[in-house]
Amino acid sequence: MFIHFIAIFLIVIFAPYSVKAEMQDMPAAKLQTLDKITARTMTFEMSVGKTVKFGPIYIKAQSCKKSEPIDKPEAAAFLQIWEVPPKKEPRWVFSGWMYASSPAVSSMEHPVYDVWVIDCLEKSEKNEGKNIPAPPK
Q1: In what helix (H) or strand (E) does residue 116 lie, and over which residues does it extend?
Q2: Into how many domains does the chain fold?
Q3: pLDDT tens digits for 43-66?
Q4: What is the residue range of 61's domain?
């Protein structure tokens, strides 16, 4: 009887922690950028699969995921960022997941620009890029 009590007690205590939180795919990302020299910031929304330009850098959101409303708030976006300096070849600056709750975990290393994820959204019709050059190979 005591073993059954212990087993039930352990299941009740640890069952909530064994549930894996699922994140929903969202069609748009909300990002913020900073030009460290001019202190210019820009907050914008972009659709997944689209590219936007900020100075000489181009940002493409490949995926954006957001936690369920009942879970701890989290948004994560898979971003590809490249720079096209004047009269030079394009070069990769960042490619990977960025997390809204912990921007320092996976941050972009650039001397002039910062980019971070704010949220993932249901839809976006603002700041859609057109005629964007291809990323580096």
Answers
A1: strand 113-121
A2: 1
A3: 999 999 999 999 999 999 999 999
A4: 22-121
